[in-house]
Design brief:
The chain is an all-alpha fold and 109 residues long. It has two domains: 43 residues; 51 residues, no CATH class. The chain contains seven helices and no strands. Helix 1 runs antiparallel to helix 2.
Length: 109
């Protein structure tokens, strides 16, 4: 697992502060600290919280979890479908397909 953004910034701050074998002048250290401050402001974590957001679907999603619904086979299929997609765009496309397919089934009734 790679370091998180805050861990990377912290490690670089230690290096700029003189931790390790870096032979940096005070001006170089100050410049690095200033650049790190700017990076920390624009970090992915600062731009977007990484936790899940509770929304109108959250309770229904939790209710469908296999320990509550007993649908272990569907969950295994979902894990496989999600595991084959490695980008958020592909996950959005998967959910869109499921919604379109569900709507088509609803109309066919």
């Amino acid at each position: 697992m790679s370091e998180s953004w805050p861990d990377q910034i912290a490690r670089l701050r230690l290096m700029a502060a003189g931790d390790g074998d870096w032979d940096l002048s005070p001006n170089d250290r100050a410049a690095i600290q200033a650049a790190l401050d700017k990076l920390a402001e624009t970090s992915p974590e600062a731009a977007m919280p990484w936790g899940d957001v509770e929304d109108g679907w959250s309770e229904r999603i939790k209710a469908a979890f296999p320990t509550r619904s007993g649908s272990h086979e569907h969950y295994a299929t979902a894990m496989k479908m999600v595991g084959h997609r490695h980008s958020k765009g592909e996950l959005v496309a998967l959910v869109n397909w499921l919604l379109v397919d569900r709507e088509a089934l609803r109309r066919a009734r």
